[in-house]
Design brief:
Layout lengths: L5 E4 L24 H10 L3 E7 L10 H15 L4 E5 L15 H10 L6 E5 L2 H10 L2 E4 L7 H6 L7 H9 L55 E2 L39
Parallel strand pairs: 1-2, 1-4, 2-3, 4-5
Antiparallel strand pairs: 3-6
Helix pairs in contact: 1-6
Bound molecules: magnesium ion (MG).
Magnesium ion binds next to loops.
Length: about 270
């Protein structure tokens, strides 16, 4: 993969474990390898953003303040991120920012001062890939147990975890170390800035997530994302089967691709 200028991450079930309608910062748990993967990108100078559907706001299930608190916790554990773009709308609002629409990706790229086509979007469901595609960005899917088989099959690239995805993104990085430093034994040095684990990733190709300040959470007006905004936990449909957003609900996936309560497999 040609080295991108920025990597945009979905939030729930990509950067942090999905907790339906979570308004509690104490419930934020990073996904495996997230910290290491993000730091690897930062060391290489890539800019990082978060693009997140947060329809809980539009559904009246969470307050913006609650979401800001959760996002601040994500930032404290995994950040700082250079840009946040969140969609606060409910699916029926017909906005242009809710993934799979391209608005969040376009907005995050704008905030970062890069072109969407110079971005990679890493997410866990098909709508993340579709948003990337619609915006002209590249997509890398890191599935969870709730990712649908057809979403995996149609993804431009699939990696088994975040570290593999980041290694894939960095694979063609011209600054990538070409040789293993002469060391008696592998292991981290001082601040851990060694090989970065840039060895070819154990991923498998299928064909082919603000700056600390200024987290203005915009209004709920349809038509635009919350620039730098941190929105609420996503909508979680209660009915069984796929929802209007094409996501599975009822203990498996919810309206924004989130696990229903207790539904997250280990
Ligand atoms: Mg997700």
């Amino acid at each position: 993969m040609t080295r991108p200028a920025a990597v945009l991450f979905d939030r729930d079930d990509t950067l942090v474990e999905d907790v339906p309608y979570n308004g509690d910062p104490e419930k934020v748990r990073p996904m495996p390898g997230a910290r290491e993967a993000l730091d690897m990108l930062r060391r290489r100078g890539l800019r990082l953003g978060v693009v997140s559907n947060q329809s809980g706001i539009g559904r009246g299930l969470l307050t913006e303040a609650e979401v800001r608190a959760v996002n601040a916790r994500v930032d404290s554990l995994l950040g700082p991120f250079d840009a946040w773009a969140c969609c606060p709308h409910a699916p029926e609002d017909g906005c242009g920012c809710r993934k799979p629409a391209p608005g969040l990706v376009v907005e995050a790229a704008r905030l970062l001062g890069v072109r969407p086509e110079d971005c990679v979007v890493i997410g866990d469901i098909g709508s993340d890939m579709d948003a990337a595609r619609a915006a002209g960005a590249r997509g890398v899917l890191v599935p969870t147990a709730r990712t649908l088989p057809e979403e995996v099959a149609s993804a431009p690239h699939v990696c088994e975890d975040l570290l593999s995805a980041v290694r894939h993104v960095l694979r063609d990085d011209p600054r990538r170390p070409r040789a293993t430093p002469p060391r008696a034994a592998p292991g981290p040095v001082a601040d851990g800035r060694t090989a970065d684990g840039d060895a070819p990733a154990a991923d498998h190709s299928v064909g082919g997530h603000a700056p600390a300040a200024g987290r203005a959470v915009g209004g709920h007006a349809v038509g635009g994302p919350m620039a730098d905004g941190h929105a609420a936990a996503d909508g979680h449909a209660q009915a069984a089967g796929r929802t209007a957003d094409g996501h599975v609900a009822a203990g498996r996936r919810t309206a924004d691709g989130h696990a229903a309560a207790g539904g997250r497999p280990v």
